[in-house]
Amino acid sequence: MLLGIKRIYEKASITDGRRILVDGLWPRGVRKSTSNIDFWMKDIAPSEDLRRWFNNDPKKWVSFKKKYEAEIKKNPAFKALQEKVRIEDVTLVYAASDGKRNNAAAIASFLKSHAPKPKKEDIAKKVAEDLEKELQMQ
Fold first, then answer.
1. SS (H, E, C) the chain
2. All residues at 6 or more sequence positions from 122 whose CB lies less than 8 Å from its CB, including other chains
3. Which residues 6+ apart lie within 8 Å of 76 measured at CB?
4. CA distance 23 to 56
5. In a structure prediction context, what are the per-residue pLDDT tens digits for the chain, which is 138 residues long?
């Protein structure tokens, strides 16, 4: 499935799939009723200590990613997110102003490097769907 990241202040799109906010704090100036967030997964956000230490400092990005990966590997919310990404399109939503160095970018990187292997039944279902589409085109 597709995995994307998007700043919460950007307009939602139908191609976003499930929009999951991955920040521990609700973004400033955004109403929950108009945010187009499907799920707020605040449990997957960096610990408060790590977030405050990082403070969006680009010089600390590499160290932040390593520390955050150590945190996230122990987090059951990461397993839940891996499963969600395996079965549907997901956009990780964040509030930080730096589009390249934020927790959503780190999570996306972790998800890609720790992608679970597809299950046999998922592969069979995908092949069947592709075959059915091909037959409909003829």
1. CCEEEEECCCCCCHHHCEEEECCCCCCCCCCHHHCCCCEECHHHCCCHHHHHHHCCCHHHHHHHHHHHHHHHHCCHHHHHHHHHHHHCCEEEEECCCCCCCCHHHHHHHHHHHCCCCCCHHHHHHHHHHHHHHHHHHC
2. 86, 87
3. 43
4. 13
5. 789 999 999 999 999 999 999 999 999 999 998 899 999 999 999 999 999 999 999 999 999 999 999 999 999 999 999 999 988 999 999 999 999 999 999 999 999 987 766 666 666 777 777 777 777 766
Rg (CA), the chain: 17
- Rounded Cα distance, 42 and 37, in Å: 12
The 8 Å CB, 24+ separation contacts for 49-53 are 51/24, 51/103
- Amino acid of residue 80: A
Two tokens at 33?
Answer: 């009723």
What's the whole-model pTM score? Answer: 0.81
**Structure-block tokens of residue 117:** 């292997």
